[in-house]
Amino acid sequence: MTDTKLFQDVVRARHSVRAFLPTVVPDALIREVLVDAQHAPSNCNAQPWVIHIVSGARRDAISKAILAADDAGRITPDFPFATSNFCDAYRERTAAQGKAYYEAIGVAREDFDERRTASQLNLSFFGAPHIALLFMPVVGENEVRVAGDLGMYGQTFLLSLTAHGLGGIPQTMLGFYADTIREELGIDPSFKMLFGISFGYPDPNSAANSYRIEKVAIEESVTFHS
Description:
By secondary structure, the chain is α+β, with helices and mostly antiparallel strands. It has one domain (about 5-85, about 125-220): NADH Oxidase, CATH 3.40.109. The chain is built from seven helices and four strands. The chain has a four-stranded antiparallel beta sheet. Helix 1 packs across helix 6 (about 145-165), helix 2 (about 25-35) packs across helix 6 and helix 3 packs antiparallel against helix 7 (about 180-185). It is globular, with a radius of gyration of 18 Å. The relative contact order is 0.24.
């Protein structure tokens, strides 16, 4: 077993890592993280997550395939997502995150070529040596609740990474290439991809990891009743 941090330190230190060292995470350590994540709560204890961990040559093959799909405009999300659908404070927060990231890596707002190059770093997993791909079964009217279960699994996975000195980034963008990823890994189409998590050892010297986004005060999100 590896040393872990106190919960408050972990939950406040966790952030989305956008640059990784090429160092491979030992299998035993990945298994520790997976065991932690398996303790995530789920509706009626269904544990509906189906996780694929991809490393090495398969990781490289998937990156190549989804980059090719992106160039060809072959976008096949199982679930729609567009930040343009956010409004008011939610849109402001997403815009602030994007602005902080591009400023940190020195990409100007009007430099569309560089912004596309930076966006495509998602598809090479920001250099992370490992990816966790989160799939869910088709469950009809329970779909939203099952997606919530996968969200709780993903957060538990991310917190465990942080506790073990690793880092990760949840990437909705990977879900835009669900068909390509299923084809590459031979996954049954009945399993729908929600998102992926690139993970590994954070690169402490990268500008992409040099900034932090402030969280809003709880008064903006929480209403107390008594």
